[in-house]
Design a protein that fits this description.
Elements lengths: L2 E5 L2 E3 L5 E8 L3 E11 L6 E7 L4 E3 L7 E6 L4 E6 L8 E11 L2 E6 L3 E5 L2
Parallel strand pairs: 2-11
Antiparallel strand pairs: 1-3, 3-8, 4-5, 4-9, 5-6, 7-8, 9-10, 9-11
Length: 119
């Protein structure tokens, strides 16, 4: 079983920055895609940013130019640098990973970390 452990998050003023990090625990897995989703109050969960094992990235339009996703393939860790944060970025952020465990495909999310943008 692959579990994702997130760190970072917290309270920040508009225009501020935060960095989220995520690392998997377990063994015998290969991760293809990693990234972050978020769920704002009263809204559905949405993809924020994804990065493939080859380094290809994908961002939701609302964070382009402000958020940067990075990945360390050797450690299977992923980070999300969030700059110029806005009120509407307030949400629970979930780390995501998809790949294979043994010969079986998997996709999983972390437990989530709260990001609150408030003055």
């Amino acid at each position: 079983q692959v579990q994702l452990v997130e760190s970072g998050g917290g309270l920040v003023q508009p225009g501020g920055s935060l960095r989220l990090s995520c690392a998997p625990s377990g063994s015998s897995f290969v991760i293809n895609s990693m990234g972050w989703y978020r769920r704002a109050p009263g809204k559905q969960r949405e993809m924020v940013a994804l990065v493939s094992s080859g380094g290809n990235t994908n961002y939701v339009d609302s964070v382009k130019g402000r958020f940067t996703i990075s990945r360390d393939n050797a450690k299977n860790t992923v980070a999300l640098q969030m700059n110029s944060l806005k009120f509407e970025d307030t949400a629970v952020y979930y780390c995501y990973a998809a790949g294979t465990l043994g010969l079986k495909p998997f996709n999983t999310w972390g437990q989530g970390t709260q990001v609150t943008v408030s003055s």
